[in-house]
Structure formats: C-alpha cells, structure tokens
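tool=predict chain=A
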Amino acid sequence: MGPLDLRPHDPRDGRDLGVCLLVDGEHRIVSAHKGSGHFFRQRFSAVLLVPLVVWFVYVVARYTGADHATVKEFLGEPINAGLMVALILVGVYHFASGMQVVIEDYIAAPGSRMALMFLTRLFSLAVAVAAALAASMLAGWITL
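tool=predict ok
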C-alpha cells in the first residue's frame, strides 16, 4: 500500500468522494461515507412498501371484477385513498432511488450519467403526479 492521499475528491472526474489511497501510482477510493444515508432511505422505503403492497394485493383480490362505482366508493374512503397515494409515492421514490444506484454504479460517462439521472427523475415525477392525480380523482378529492 502506498501513502494516504487526503484530497477529498476523485481524481478521475473531480467529484467529492472522501479519502483516496495511492496504490502503485493509481488513486483508489477508500470510502466516501456518503452512501449510508442513501442505503438507509432505500431500506426504509422498502420496509414501508411491505404493508402497502400487502394491502394492495388484498384490494386487487377483493375488487377484481367489481364495477367502477364500487371501486370508486372504496377509494372514496379517506384511509383507502391515502393508502393508495402512499403506495404510489413510496413506490415511485423507491424506484427512483434504486435507479440512481444502478446509474451511478454502471454508467461511466458523466454526461450520460447526468442525462439518465435527469430522465429518471422526470419519469418518476410524471408517474407520481399522474398516479396520485388519478387516485385523488377516484377518491373524489378533485374533479377535472
């Protein structure tokens, strides 16, 4: 092992990553200590999704084949509409968070990485807004 390089950036692209080791003339990233917050948020959203998905599977099983009025009446109850919106928002957050990790880990080109992150966030926002709007309309909270 070579000397410790205390520069707080990745010499390959200048990102602030923490401490690097100089090994055989190459910089090796030791730890940035920046992934733990993302890791715990990802796990927390996964834990939140478990009861929400169980509830959703129950709802789908119970209301399969039901008419629109019956489903609308069910989603018109505030607790059910709230659970549906929570499922949508937490699910979209979990998706976007997971895609961020995949993009950061496997897309090497900084320009492509930034473009894909932007598109992922844009897609996630569009899905969240559309789905929450649809659930809110079914619940009767809003009318267009």
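The mean pLDDT is 83. The beta strands are 4-5, 19-23, 26-31.
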